[in-house]
Amino acid sequence: MSKYLLWLLASSLGCLLIECVGAGLGIATYLPARFGGLLHGRNVVLDFLLLSGTALSPPLVLMVAHALCMLCALSPGRIGSVGVAGLTLLGAGYFIGQLGEPILAQSLNPATFNALHASIALLIIVLSALMVVLGVCEWRQRQLANKTTSTGMATDVRQERR
Fold first, then answer.
1. What total number of domains does the chain contain?
2. Residue 78 CB: number of other CB atoms within 10 A?
3. pLDDT tens across 87-114, in order?
4. What is the 3-state secondary structure (H, E, C) of 2-26?
5. Cα–Cα distance list, 158 to 49, 76, 123, 138 (Å)
6. Is residue 58 within 8 Å of residue 87, measured between CB atoms?
7. Host domain of residue 155
8. In a designed cystine with 80, which of 75, 87, 90, 113 is the match (CB 3.0 to 4.6 A)?
9. pLDDT over 70 at 40, yes or no
10. CA-to-CA distance for 56 and 123, rounded, in angstroms?
11. Which residues contact 39 (CB under 8 A, 6 or more apart)?
12. DSSP symbol at 30
């Protein structure tokens, strides 16, 4: 397992765990998703289960897809590459989604500061950005390994770098 894949899976697992905490907190304290002021959740539980998630988490379907992509990324070949690509795209989506949530600015505002909300939102932003960077690095490494293997130049680029 490459160091990029190991760190990608670690950051993905961290992000998924923080999102689970965010989902629980969002449901328990009624924090509907309001991305860019466009969403107006009426039922936080239904929004989490079906469509838009909460202010501190993506919807359940994306979290399940996230877990499946992590499992796929462990596989070699095409399935693994699909898993890595999925994690990279989900990381980009989480990053943009959390930046667009008004709760981020609200929780960082000195007048309405909330350390718990701010730390969950900021952790999701940092971990999802790591997912993107590490996913691109792992994807590139896999593509390079496939290219060199197909041309017969090297059996595995990862072994050469060690």
1. 1
2. 11
3. 999 999 999 999 998 889 999 999 999 9
4. CHHHHHHHHHHHHHHHHHHHHHHHH
5. 40, 13, 30, 11
6. no
7. 3-161
8. 75
9. no
10. 10
11. 32, 33, 52
12. T
The tokens of 20 are what? 């689970």
The predicted-structure confidence for 116-136, as pLDDT tens digits, reads as follows 999 999 999 999 999 999 999
Q: CB atoms < 10 A from the CB of 128, how many?
A: 27
In angstroms, rounded to a whole number, what is the distance separating the alpha carbons of residues 29 and 70?
29
The three-state secondary structure class of 86 is helix
Q: How many residues does the chain have?
A: 162
Q: 3-class DSSP state for residue 53?
A: coil
CA dist 122 → 7, 19, 74, 104, 133 (Å):
19, 11, 27, 8, 17
Which tokens is 26 given?
A: 């969002």
Rounded distance between C-alpha atoms, residue 15 and residue 67, angstroms: 11
The set of residues, in sequence order, having a beta carbon less than 8 Å from that of 5 and lying 6+ positions away, is 73, 84, 138
Mean pLDDT to the nearest integer, 139-144? 86
The DSSP call for residue 56 is T
87 and 131 Cβ atoms separated by less than 8 Å: yes
What residues form DSSP beta bridges with 45? none
Token digits of residue 99: 């930046």
